[in-house]
Amino acid sequence: MAMAFAAGAVSTALRISDSHIPQLFSIVVANVLLLLALALIHRCVAAFAPVGAGVRVFEGALIAAATLGLIYFTYAQGSLAARSFILSLTSFGIAMLSSWTLLACRDAAVRTPCVATAGLYLTFALTSAARCIGVLLHDTPHEFFTASISNLIGFLGFQIIIVGVPLGYFWMSSARLWANQNQLALTDPLTGLPNRRALEEWGAKVFQERQALRVPFTILVIDIDHFKRINDHYGHKGGDIALRALAHALAAAVRREDMVARLGGEEFVILLWNETLAGALVTAERIRKIIEGMEIVIDDHILKTTVSSGVAVFEAEDTFEAVLRRADRALYAAKVAGRNRVMLDSALTLVG
């Protein structure tokens, strides 16, 4: 953004010095710098809605064509009207590209400021189009800074870009920063999974949706068996490796609509959305077998471990916290029963 404003400032300085410097600088270089400033601002806002290489190529081709046109209508056929038309038409193209880029943003965290900034670009595009029409209607003075409707419209359009877009960029940056900080607060730094806070927030939301939609919902609480032995034998580094391996395996074993979170220590929680008790038991047993068959490499050693799981299903009058407690009690029962097994909360039915 700083480079864009530097290019714009140099462009303005060159235009002001029109009568004291060669036309190459006061007309061609000044206008090309102005277009480059618009393109650089577009690159800044495109960070919030990445664009393909084709858009960059098209933007570069616009500026290259404008440069050639400015050179031609400065030296081969001097025409302020033609140069004004080229500048306005190219500005229109860049503004439309920028607005299209921002409207294509699907990131919910910055969607609102992107749409608002796209509105500013569309307004600028309209002023550029109006200036093109004004030139075609011969509303172009012989001097660039002479008062005319076309120049007034162009001036107002650039004021929108100079003032409005940086504010929009600041809004987008702030929204993205806030979203990133919030994401960090909801993420377990060791495993990259959602943490307990995220689990509670998402669980409360899902609980409300379940009540409204009347769909089945089940919780699995999973714990690594004899994790203290792993820490004692391999150190905390080895324990961390085991936790990350388990987290990866759990995330790969469930559906996209389900949630895997680290509750704390060696304990994990899986929220199975729209899953019956029978399906949850099948999933829990499948996960148990996957972990039992895993080989975790720690400093050239192979670690094999197992997990115990507790399963609880939402009942009509349940709260999320109550179901989580029942699943945790079922997990404890699985530990007492000998580990490496799945237990159901209500009747403590053994599976596998």
Could you write a compact summary of the structure shown?
By secondary structure, the protein is of the alpha+beta class. The protein has helices at 2-16, 23-45, 53-76, 80-103, 111-136, 149-185, 196-213, 227-253, 277-292, 320-336, and strands at residues 217-224, 259-264, 267-273, 296-298, 301-303, 307-313, 342-344, 350-351. The longest helix is centred in the middle third of the chain and has 37 residues, at 149-185.
List the helices and strands and how they pair.
Layout: H1 2-16, H2 23-45, H3 53-76, H4 80-103, H5 111-136, H6 149-185, H7 196-213, E1 217-224, H8 227-253, E2 259-264, E3 267-273, H9 277-292, E4 296-298, E5 301-303, E6 307-313, H10 320-336, E7 342-344, E8 350-351
Parallel strand pairs: 6-7
Antiparallel strand pairs: 1-3, 1-6, 2-3, 4-5, 7-8
Helix pairs in contact: 1-2, 2-3, 2-4, 2-6, 3-4, 4-5, 5-6, 8-9
